[in-house]
Amino acid sequence: MAQPSATHHIPSDSDSEPDDSTSTTPSFLSDFHKPTQNPAIYHLSFNQDYGCFAAGLDNGFCIYNTDPFKPQFRRDLGSRGGIGLVTMLFRSNIICLVGGGPDPMYPTSKVMIWDDHQSRCIGELSFRSEVKNVKLRRDKIIVVLLQKIFVYNFVDLKLIHQIETVLNPKGLCEISNTSSPMVLVCPGLQKGQIRVENYGSKRTKFVMAHDSRIACMTLTQDGRLLATASSKGTLIRVFNTLDGSLLQEVRRGADRAEIYSLAFSSNAQWLALSSEKGTVHVFSLKVDSGSLVTLANDRSHVASEPNQSGGLGISSLSILKGVLPKYFSSEWSVAQFRLTEGLQYLVAFGHQKNTIVIIGMDGSFYRCEFDPENGGEMTQLEHHNFLNLDNFLKPGETFP
């Protein structure tokens, strides 16, 4: 197995001058000027800071910048097969690939470590069953199978930990990206249970988050806050990973829905959600991540703390919460954005204040702005079909 090489970085924007030492018109770009049918999308994922996103296609993969929206590069691997999973390592040249689709490029039981500087795979990790997810840190590779998770050191691909989980067909697993040592969360061994691994204190904590199976989860960058949704998709719960205490509960709606993605804002003031109902929600959070221990020890303080959105999202009928059904007193979203119902979208917070980035399995990209004071419907700032390169790549232009 080859070891990962030193990394170089994707530029944060496309306004910089090209490097004179390299060709400014790579051969793989020529296909972008041909009026061919859009490739099928098998996988979408954001990088660790939401500054880029990757698309696994039936003939390779693409990387895009989110803010401003610009294509970074595409690797068209021809007729060799599909990519079912793409995981970026921040903006570096190291990308993990797993085959997918009807004709996988690589076995679905292998993680291929692609070095884009060399345009080839420099290592691989092989398993006996299908790889469901891959998570990357600068020091770790985490591979998720149906009922097991493997944690490797990045530098030498040495296995350092194995975790057993309940059936996990979605490959649910989240890791802290900025904290060191790492915090890892995944499904536990029971329905509705979350396992929290703190590699600093070497402690494992189990949290009964929901009565139904876990359908979606996300962590803050430092790993101190965890948000979870169940297969019912009505309530989203926010936990303190330090002690497993429930800090806040918000409501998407009263009817069942599959939750596709959850995302914290960088300051943990907001939580975004996308679901099969075609609506993206933004919730106001009342948790100060800098005083989690204090809040965890004083649950009444959490319950009585005023909503930072000026009361938005709290039902005006909350005074009757002892009489009316529970959903009348739940905390509802501050802002919403309507999309096509039934399509799968992923959501993240943009680098501009109060903005949301949405990417869809239909090739759609949206950037929206929400009003933190008045709430309501978000304002659409951008919309692109990121597979239709004629929309944003003029003849003769190349990617940075």
UniProtKB/TrEMBL annotation:
InterPro entries: PROPPIN, WD40/YVTN_repeat-like_dom_sf, WD40_repeat_dom_sf, WD40_rpt
Entry membrane topology: Peripheral membrane protein
Region spans: Disordered: 1-30
Family: Belongs to the WD repeat PROPPIN family.
Keywords assigned by UniProt, alphabetized: Repeat, WD repeat
Compartments reported by the entry: Preautophagosomal structure membrane
SUPFAM superfamilies: WD40 repeat-like
Any single Gene Ontology cellular-component annotation: phagophore assembly site membrane
Protein's name in the database: Autophagy-related protein 18a
Bias (Low complexity) ranges: 21-30
Domain of life: Eukaryota
One Pfam family linked to the record: PROPPIN
